Amino acid sequence: MARHHGRLLYAKRYGSTRGADREWRWLHKLAEAGFRVARPVGKVSSPAASIAIFGAVPGRSLDAWAVTARRQGWLPAWFDYAIAEVAPLIRRLHARGWVHRDLNCAHLFAVDPQRGGAPALIDVERVLQPRLRWQRWVVKDLASLLASSPVPVPVSVMARFLRAYAPGESAAARRRLGAAVGRKVARISRHRPRFG
Length: 196
Prior knowledge:
Shape: globular
Distance between the termini: 23 Å
Strand order of the largest sheet: 1-2-4-3
Largest sheet: 4 strands, antiparallel
Radius of gyration: 17 Å
């Protein structure tokens, strides 16, 4: 992180010469499709590594906002924000055939959930347009988001979220999706990270 002429910039290092290319490409594709993302500033590569530089995204991560909302007593408004803004964002992403693959509350930034406005996506280097097993990728994105919440998410909130995410689906289809997401969340919760 550094300031340059009053602007906050972030540099992200990748362990290969072309590592920054993937994130660079997705930042441009997502922005062209109307998604809020970090503004690319530049990239540099060497024989062993590469670096992408981008402007800071305004606001704070959704997990930080959730902790604040719980502490200050406006957690229901945080849930309402996720339903009104995050669910449609993910629906738009998936409607294009794209999955984030690292979709969690820390990778969604909002200026102020109490005021609304679509969140920005960060860390987009793993975005993918899968050709096979589409439903598996959808479930993984949704489960990653739910599992990353630092506050417990009531079943009723998850049901409302799925209605906003998949408004054209039947109640039975949403229940099946919710069950698959719940199973994946349970697997994620049992997973122990190899490092840290």
